[in-house]
Amino acid sequence: MREEIERVNTALDEYLTMQVEQAKKLSPVHALYYSNIREYLMRGGKRLRPVMVVSGYKAVRETVEIRHLYRAACSIEMLHNGSLLHDDLIDHDEIRRGGPTFHAWYREWYLRHAKEDLEKAMDFGMAMAVLGGDSLLNMGPQIISASELSPEVAYECLRYYQTAYQELADGVLLEMNMVNDPNVTAETYLEMIRLKTAVLFEKALLMGATMAGATEEQKRALSEFGVCVGQAFQIQDDILGSFGKEAVTGKSAEGDIREGKKTMLVIEAYRLGNDEERATLDALLGKKDITTEEIEQVRSIFRHTGALDSASNLMKELLRKGQGALYTAEPSFQDKYREFLLYLSELLVNRSY
After folding, report:
1. Residue 209 in contact with residue 291, Cβ under 8 Å?
2. How far apart are CA 12 and CA 77, in angstroms?
3. pLDDT digits 0-9 by tens, 263-313
4. Which one of 93, 135, 272, 309 has the fewest beta carbons within 10 angstroms of its own beta carbon?
5. Do 213 and 319 share a domain, yes or no?
6. Are 226 and 81 part of one and the same domain?
7. E-strand spans in 64-161?
8. How many domains does the chain have?
9. Do residues 73 and 171 both lie within one domain?
10. Is the domain of 125 the same as that of 180?
11. Does residue 53 form part of some domain?
12. Confidence (pTM)
């Protein structure tokens, strides 16, 4: 895992450094902008999606016969991080991977270097985050085009990228409107996280498999694995979003409750709780001036209703289903990389960060 992450990071840093060097020819403003994009990506991140591209390839064909496999794998990381810049803005988050979010950084930059006008600084920060996300989302297809793939393979990878991009946007749209829906079901939630999160895992695996010349049965197995494990990953992410330690996760464990997000924890708490507990959730979730004590009260409801246990059990069920799909491929996957994917899936749902 460490070796694959190092290879991905090397390819990612090389590409982003090239972007910074090109930006220097435009102006100092552009150089700073692309340097900030590079810093945002290189300050951390699990690199799960590009590692899945590589794993999808090697599960089918262990010998790498593509010159720029790791560069091509970074395309899906650009899509992921472009969505994160926009997601941070939507959620009003201030911290990402232990550092300031893009809009927060540029807001403070404006206050120091332009005018001490907070309203204008906030607008400037938001505009830069939208622009930064757009730049990253466009870099993904650029990387595919620059990876010296055959025309047929490049076309398929671009198609997977575009489908993932569209479904990701549809997932965020669904999530934002779920906040105001009092009757959200677990089924709606699972569809939302399939679109918002799992699709990137699925399409990353399919991109790698396509580069390796996979059969349709191999692609089907990787698709089911990616969707189920991606959904399990998001449920764990939701759990960490309310119960994680900020020093470990690099982001606040209060944001989801403050925003009133309809996570599986919330859905199950409403389903399993009594009238008093549901009324408390109605009053506190998304409350503008919610206190730390009130946030802890919501966490207590998640525990006492059994919502935390229920979400955790669903996560484990999805994990088992996804892992089982890996054994249905024809021809069978390379043993070494099937085991690696099984290990990776365990890592995803048993993590604390």
Report:
1. no
2. 9
3. 999 999 999 999 999 999 999 999 989 999 999 999 999 999 999 999 999
4. 309
5. yes
6. no
7. 95-96, 99-100
8. 2
9. no
10. no
11. no
12. 0.91
DSSP 151-213: HHHHHHHHHHHHHHHHHHHHHHHHHHHHTT-TT--HHHHHHHHIIIIIHHHHHHHHHHHHHTT
pLDDT at position 98 over 90: no
Q: Is 331 helix (H, G, I), strand (E, B) or coil?
A: coil
What domain range includes position 98?
A: 1-42+67-148
Letter for the amino acid at 55?
S
Dist CA 185 CA 110 (whole Å): 43
Q: Which of 112, 132, 148 is the last residue of a domain?
A: 148
Mean model confidence pLDDT for the chain: 94
Two structure tokens written together for 105: 């950084």
160 and 139 part of one domain: no
**CATH for 219:** 1.10.600.10
Amino acid type, 306: G
User: Do 210 and 85 share a domain, yes or no?
Assistant: no
109/136 Cα distance (integer angstroms)? 21
CA dihedral 101, 105, 111, 114 (to 10 degrees): -130
Give residue for tokens 């606040």.
252
Among 153, 142, 134, 179, residue whose Cα is nearest residue 37: 134
Domain final residue pick, 110, 131, 148: 148
Q: Which residues pair with 95 in a beta bridge?
A: 100
pLDDT in tens, 195-246: 999 999 999 999 999 999 999 999 999 999 999 999 999 999 999 999 988 7
**50-66 tens-digit pLDDT:** 999 999 999 999 898 88
CB neighbours of 257 closer than 8 A, spacing ≥ 6?
242, 284, 285, 290, 295, 298, 299
Q: For residue 136, is it within any domain?
A: yes
Residue with tokens 């010998």: 63
Q: What is the 3-state secondary structure (H, E, C) of 244-281?
A: CCHHHHCCCCCHHHHHCCCCHHHHHHHHHCCHHHHHHH
Is the backbone peptide bond immediately before 151 cis, with ω within 30 degrees of 0? no
In a domain, 47, yes or no: no
